[in-house]
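subagent[fold] <- orchestrator: predict structure for attached chain, return tokens only, no commentary.
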Amino acid sequence: MLNAKIKRTDSRELSSVSVNTETNSIEFEGNEFGINDIPLDNPVTGTVYGTLLNFHGGLERLGDKVNDKPYLSPPVAPVLYIKPENTLNRYGAGIPVPKSESKLEMGASLGIVIGKTAVAVTEETAMDYVAGYTIVNDVSVPHTSLFRPAVQQKCRDGFCPIGPWVIDRDEMKNPDDVTIRVFINNELRQENSTKNLIRPVARLLADVTEFMTLSPGDVLLVGVPEDAPLAIVGDKVRIEIEGVGKLENELVDEESFNRRWSQ
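subagent[fold] -> orchestrator:
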């Protein structure tokens, strides 16, 4: 069992628990529960920041496009965006597919949860500011534009499932060497590793906090690997990150999603 934090849907506070990442079970107040026996909310209390082009494979796929106008070179600093509050979603909830779309991209990412205010940290001290790690599905409408903020494609309601919990920092020996897998209807559709990050976790934190403050509860995504798999309404998506657990959601039509959340 590993030490972790959960947030129940009936509480605003995080609770300390022990979890089994293989069986997705939770030991809470002396009792062991299956993950579906506890009403879990997403375990996030701050802002969620995504990072673009932080996997070597994704940048290589762009080829010479990174030298086109207006940037004329590969990124020299982290390329960030925000997943606003309306996108936040939880373990087991539906991911809404807009009427105008037939498929969505499933963007698996390791989420770094910040434990204390981080300003201009160094690579050597960066890990002291980490509270733990979680799993994030950075859902997107498929798109090709790199030069405009993809708000319509990445910031729709429910487009950011997170969870099921936050694993305490000390439970993960090396966040720069964990396997990420995406299953759709139990079929393995993507496998990658944080070994392929351009900016490993400590360097990413150092480079980001050089120009902006990260606050306790914020979540910084290390990035989404290339070839994010596509899913349609009715598909069941499971993201597994070694040492963190499994995040499961099903794609639903937008009307069903709106009806559930209005109740």
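orchestrator: received. Logging for downstream: The first strand starts at residue 2 and ends at 8. The mean pLDDT is 92.
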